[in-house]
Amino acid sequence: MQSASEQSEAARTPAPPAPAEHAYPDHWEADVVLRDGGTARIRPITADDADRLVSFYEQVSDESKYYRFFAPYPRLSAKDVHRFTHHDFVDRVGLAATVGGEFIATVRYDRINAQGLPASAPADEAEVAFLVQDAHQGRGVASALLEHIAAVARERDIRRFAAEVLPANTKMIKVFTDAGYTQKRSFEDGSVRLHLDLEPTDRSLAVQRAREQRAEARSVQRLLTPGSVAVVGAGRAPGGVGRTVLRNLLGAGFTGRVYAVNAALTGETELDGVPAHPSVGAIGEPVDLAVVAVPAERVPEAVADCGEHGVRGLVVLSAGYAESGAAGRERQRELVRQARSYGMRIIGPNAFGIINTADDVRLNASLAPQMPAAGRIGLFTQSGAIGIALLAGLHRRGAGLSSFISAGNRADVSGNDFLQHWYDDPGTDVVLLYLESIGNPRKFTRLARRTAAVKPVVVVKGARHSGSAPPGHRVPVTRIPHATVSALLRQAGVIRVDTVTELVDAGLLLAAQPLPAGPRVAILGNSESLGLLTYDACLTEGLRPLRPLDLTTAAVPADFRDALAAALADETSDAVVVNAIPWVGEDGATEFGDGEVLAAALREAVASAPTPTKPVVVVHVEMGGLAEALAVATSTRPAAAGRGAVTTENRAAGAAAPAGAETTASAPGPSAAPPPPPGAVPGAAPSAAPTQPLAQTPTHATIPAYPAAERAVRALAEAVRYGQWRRQAAEPGRVPEYEDIDEAGAAALIEGVLGGDGVDDRGVTLDTEEAGALLARYGIAVRPTLPAPTPDAAVAAAARLGYPVALKTTAPHLRHRPDLGGVRLDLATEEQLRTAYAELTEVLGKPEELQPVVQAMVPRGVDTVVRSAIDPAVGAVLSFGLAGAPSELLGDTAHRLVPATDRDAAELVRSLRTAPMLFGWRGSAPVDTPALEELLLRVSRLVDDHPEVVAVSLEPVVVAPRGLSVLGATVRLAPPAPRTDLGPRSLPRY
After folding, report:
1. Are β-strands 191-197 and 160-165 bridged in parallel, bridged antiparallel, or unpaired?
2. Contacts of 323 (CB under 8 A, 6+ apart)
3. Which residues contact 231 (CB under 8 A, 6 or more apart)?
4. What is the mean pLDDT of residues 74-86?
5. Of 31, 163, 174, 935, which sees the most CB atoms within 10 A?
6. How far apart are alpha carbons 388 and 434 in whole angstroms?
7. How far apart are CA 930 and CA 927, in angstroms?
8. Can you name the residues that pair with 379 across neighbouring β-strands?
């Protein structure tokens, strides 16, 4: 029995009178995914659970009871039942894990004092004990319960757990020791005494996330690899959703058992050659997966039938849920609650279905009439229509899939779950996602970063500009714009594209070719014009193309083969683009127009390379059959002997070009890369490729082909950027420590402000003095500004600060808008100051409207803006940009998640389109970027150390050739929102 034990409950000292019970804490309720992929519901135990507790205890073995109570304990007394079901939810708490409404495990804690006796606050220790039904041991139930009871205890100001365990109860000892909490262990009176510090640690968080990954990946694997499938709603008449899915299952050659289920099938014994039954219960054999294709009003009956007979997962194709309005949303919530109560996970509702092409499964539980070819791409969509388009596009271009999921309203299983599965799925090399919403952006970013470290993740997001989530999608409210979310996803290694066409283009290249080691691109082909278009496209995408090699229109496939082989061997390039157009002879006949001969030549060149270290892409114009021929590993027909044919004989003999053909160089000549375009930023891209490319070898000798140079180069550029991210991710940056940071002093200041009278729960904006004091605790000095309500006050302020000074308006409509004339600089005398004051008030308004201030002049430099804000969906975000309207209009702002590393700060500074302004643009002096990067890191530390700091804005920050000056600062504090990503594992609530 996997359980901890208290000393015998029956022999305990009676507890003091219980305090008044608190209200039922419904926020402790949670659905969790267990180790085997099934689900359970965790909830507080109440007085109404007496019968459930007794029934549960009767199903526990004598050995498990002995481990729990340290003595034979065959049944619970009425007093035991009362104690274990009556809690005050503060000093005594009990949680149960349930499946189908029945208990499968329990955990409880009792607050104790230093002597181990029942106590109340401020005692901060509790004794904890578990009991898991034998049939459910090994599913990770106890580990999940420990996470949740620990979170409850922390909420009730309990900091430590004590547990007494018999030495023979090794499994429960392992639950505690593997949890990752700081712990102490001793052996007393024949039992093991454990003390756990409940403060989360890096190790406990890592353990929790590793368990989450295994459990959620397993839950997806159960859906994709069923041993048996029942189609609920398969009708007698051909057509209809259920009958279509049944036909597709059989047509794909599903390797498991298939059943047709329909309440109307009372007389039939077969449908399409498979057993037919009126209900799942009538099948009489285990069913792993049910595809539900009945009207929405009949779905609850079907779900109950499935749940009561052990079905593990559901694919709900039925529509009429959240996409249809308020009544549908409530119907969808009930569907999820009902399925989870039985431990089942759901794809859908309103789903298109799932596909698994593995030879030992061959599952097509979808409305797709044709089974995709097997391949290495995992595809997830939230839209059936887009799913159809993507399946067709990939099929046309010869790409195979490992698995496909169209999740519809994704009420339960989402893209996050499939990222967990594909992360360590050996059959998937590339992940493609079409998302219309991201239900948990913080978790998605974390999972995408981890997955992208081992395989590419390509995302296209629909509904970017609609301002709301698509109907049926439950998503958190976010205040940050789409461009910011995209930047944060790129920081996590996600390849962000804008269209489904680009999604397919990038997926084809990444699945078929190695990652480029750098941005240098060799270009060759038989069209000078197409070569120049490719060259220009490379520059547009930030690549470094070499001078194109023109093979001329007289080139034959053997010339392409030799030129490509030479380019692959040339160490001055990292990728190759081959351009091909048909050549028309003197008699008007198209030479190798069907493309298969050329495809064979290109594949031969790739195969001859010692190691496949460079990606090759082909741009073709009206080359019949070329794309199709390149998409297969071997040609479907032998090359025809004749002009341009590549055969073993003429290759071995080193045959020359046929008479009349111009001889061309067989390899690009030495060529230095052209100089970087004007405005290039130092350090923005590597100047030389690393000697070792990333280890990613395609499993098929396929070469992706594109009908336009721009599409090929864009896909290649995404691969280059992703490869660079992979190299950097292998050596992540660090969050630096600064000895002058006063974290405790900042915490005291924040507590003093938020603990004051009259503070709004929504937060408070610090005044100038408080903001400066808080920032100073983190080594950020803000230049003082003095109010100037009158000319005389301005003169007095200047005398105090010292000339020269600046006179600025701070009215909201003029603040940070020098283009409106509200700033006067370099005022060196009292006369100049008074004149400037008079001009401002005459042109812009009265002093009480303008709220003028005086500030000492600082060294000239580039005006920038540093901000940080906490978004409820993605967390704390650090932002940087140049000050001024042009940058705002262009949206030229860079973003990184907090905490930022030194590498993040360097990339922030260099990733702006206007970044050349910082590095000596047009002969200006480069500014002190190391000082700027340090400022960014200090702001990041402040926000990360103190989640109460919900917004910081430093504007302007003038960065000079030496040093910088912060001229204005705004800081907002608020009580921190709960960190959902640090809590116990749970599925989204419904």
Report:
1. antiparallel
2. 350, 409, 470, 471, 472
3. 242, 245, 246, 249, 258, 259, 260, 261, 290, 291, 293
4. 92
5. 163
6. 12
7. 9
8. 404, 432
